[in-house]
Structures are given as C-alpha cells and as structure tokens.
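Reviewers of the previous submission asked for a worked example of the structure-prediction workflow described in the proposal, so we include one complete record here. The input consisted solely of the amino acid sequence. No template or homolog information was supplied to the procedure at any stage.
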Amino acid sequence: MEKGNTKEQILEVSLDLFAIRGFEATSIAQIADAVGLRKASLYSHFANKQDILDTLVDELTKEFERHSIFARADWEDSAFTADKKGMTPEAVGAMVKGQIRYIIHDPKISKIRKMLTIEQFQNEKLKTIQSKHGYEDILKYNTGLIRFLIKEGILKDDDPEIMAAQFAWPISMWTNLCDREPEREAEAMELMDRHIRQFFRVYGKN
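From that input alone, the workflow returned the following structure tokens.
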C-alpha cells in the first residue's frame, strides 16, 4: 500500500475508534490491528498516538474553516448579507436546517464532534476546541444574525446576545439528539421549525 494512502487510512481508522471509545481508551495496537499493520509499521507514519490526534485536530480546524457557516459568517459584510435581506422564518429555518444536516451527516465532521464530546473532559486542547466550536462560534454567529435582523427591522430591538442564546441552544439540543438517536432526525427538524416560527412570533416586529 502506498505510504500516503496508509497514513490517511490510519487517520480514518483512528477517528472511528476515538469517536466510539475515546482517545485514552484506544491503544496504538488497536489502531494498528484495525488498519492491518504491525505497530512498528505504524510508527513509520506517526511518532505516537498523540501525533495522530494532533493531525486529526489540525484537519478538524481546516474542515470547519472551509465548511462551517459559523466560521465563515461576517454579518457586518454587505457581500455576506446581500442575499439575506427581508428574511422570513421559513428562510431562516431553511438556512439553519441546512447547516444542521451538514453537521450530522458529514461522516468526518460527525465523528469529530463525537470525539470532542467524549474527550472534552480529559484533554485541555480538545476542551478548548469544543468550547470554540460548540459554544463561542455558535453564539457569535447567532448574535450577528439577531443583530442583523434587528437592524433590518424584522425583529424587535432587545438584548441580541440573550435572544441569540434563546434561539440557538434548543437547536443545539436537537442536534445533539440526532447524534445520539439518528432515527429521530425528522422529529428534531419539525421541532426546529416550530421553535423558529415561535421565536419570530415573540420577537418579530410585525
């Protein structure tokens, strides 16, 4: 097997194992066995298990930067907001559900999120990443969205950060439900729709 492909296979298998067992509970021997390598051969690709994790974390960061609306959004940029004028609850719902479907169905992102959920209490670096992607980026994005909708006269002028929290955290809860119980996705999406419509009824200006 070509060396580059073997390295990618090690990363893929390691992520599978870390997402199920966690980093600490997964051994180099288990990774090597799953790939079909001897431990000595695995060490020709990675120095140790930490090296595998660091490489996965680097890939995670790049993946989120490329695809996550939370990382790419700039609500102060007229080019970013040009197609978001006069947003209706239905338009907001379609935008939110599109991102949630990407998060829960992209195989790599889904596994990385599960790994972070397991490891956030044991690994300082992963705790920081989990806080950024699972809290700070979400709150920043949704606060920007709420401020934009207030400025557009679509929502009432109130505390945008608290409004963003009220808007975002139920959606995060339903996203986590889909992670645990994928068969309940339709239920979660329907609840998101109802939640977004009610949010606009409570805070909408019309």
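The two ends are 63 Å apart (CA to CA). We consider this example representative of the routine output the project will generate in years two and three.
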